[in-house]
Amino acid sequence: MTQELHIVGGGMAGSEAAWQAANMGVQVVLHEMRPQVETFAHRTGNLGEMVCSNSFRSDDDEQNAVGLLHWEMRAAGGLIISTAHEHRLPAGGALAVDRDPFAESITAKVTAHPNIRISHEEITTLPGDGQWIFATGPLTSEALGAAIQAETGADRLAFFDAIAPIVYAETIDMDVAWLQSRYDKGETEEEQKAYINCPMTKDQYESFIDALLAADKTEFHEGETAKYFDGCLPIEVMAERGRETLRHGPMKPVGLTNPHSPEQKAYAVVQLRRDNALGTLYNIVGFQTKMKYGAQTTVFKTIPGLENASFARLGGIHRNTFINSPTLLDDRMRLRSRPNVRFAGQVTGVEGYVESAAMGLLAGRMAAAEILGKDMPTVPQDTAHGALIHHITGGAEAKTFQPMNVNFGLFRPLEGLKGGRRGRKDRYKAYTDRAKSCWQDWLAAQG
């Protein structure tokens, strides 16, 4: 075997694809344009850099679809998920990581792999020969995006993904705020106190909404249209949808008791999640924003406990590009018009770090099997990986295709299980049990 696998993009999907293919014995060239060519959102040239949240979300593999995806990736020797656990931070049942050491570790592992070579240049075309995986993610360069558009003959789909601000912990007033995970979630005291909570009265909440609506916002470039993914809406867009929207979303006050005033129920609560191992940085949960920097500091300092806050990073907004995968990709993630080219990660229309890495895992294995002349069995649809790939390569409605997180709504129903909220616990456990069995069989079939 002499054919190399070329992978474009060193984020979650590209790094995972390279790792999986290299471990199967394939020689991999990983093309990452950073740091030679920078993006708006990245700060370093490290592989696997996290530019938005530092959370991989729930790690519950029995009652949560993303937790199941974690489990499947661990079983498959996943680079991203194993490294995330090495750099885990307390997060009340979620898998949050210390982002800089995480990316540094991913970079070190990939660089040290004997079957992987890293090349730092921008790829701007879709090659006509060789085996390629494009995992350029939401920040696909304009030149490459134009090449994809020319090849597919269809307009690229784009939405805008906003970055939440990060606050220095020492500047948060803990005489007002308190440490607690919602419903005291977590097995240890550290997990149960993984979030800082800032309470609001009704009047404070109403004033905050007024300030959000009146704040100066970032202007879009000519010809751009804002098509937001509902799972990552800027807070001011949520506020525009109704004054109570935030109070029933990221600012919901449930599952929390203020120890400074235990008898008083907060009308709304702003949560901050630990962002590094030292506990010196906290990001404001769900507070993606496209407000201008000056407006951000003004508005966020109206939050009780953050009046004197200092920000390590303010929120931002960047273009997020994805293709219409149901019309363009086959079930092996190959471009129908150019089968030597695969796509993986967020550019395929999955949403989130975990989902992106999962699609990289599949693309890397599929490409390596093809190069090695091996017959890879179809990914079982009843697994989390299978549910996702089925959705993006044919299960979704192409006309209304939008980025999707993994969720149990993508899974095929099981007969004889009670529907509705009351039957949810048993139903989810049955989904995860079935998925684990199918996934283990699929891995075993590959030898």
Automatic annotation (TrEMBL):
It is an enzyme of class 2 (transferase). Residues 5-374 form the MnmG N-terminal domain. Keywords: Cytoplasm, FAD, Flavoprotein, Methyltransferase, NAD, NADP, Transferase, tRNA processing. It catalyses: uridine(54) in tRNA + (6R)-5,10-methylene-5,6,7,8-tetrahydrofolate + NADPH + H(+) = 5-methyluridine(54) in tRNA + (6S)-5,6,7,8-tetrahydrofolate + NADP(+); uridine(54) in tRNA + (6R)-5,10-methylene-5,6,7,8-tetrahydrofolate + NADH + H(+) = 5-methyluridine(54) in tRNA + (6S)-5,6,7,8-tetrahydrofolate + NAD(+). The keyword Transferase applies. GO terms for molecular function: flavin adenine dinucleotide binding; tRNA (uracil(54)-C5)-methyltransferase activity, 5,10-methylenetetrahydrofolate-dependent. It is found in: Cytoplasm. One of its GO terms (biological process) is tRNA methylation. Catalyzes the folate-dependent formation of 5-methyl-uridine at position 54 (M-5-U54) in all tRNAs. This is Methylenetetrahydrofolate--tRNA-(uracil-5-)-methyltransferase TrmFO. The lineage of its organism: Bacteria, Pseudomonadati, Pseudomonadota, Alphaproteobacteria, Rhodobacterales.
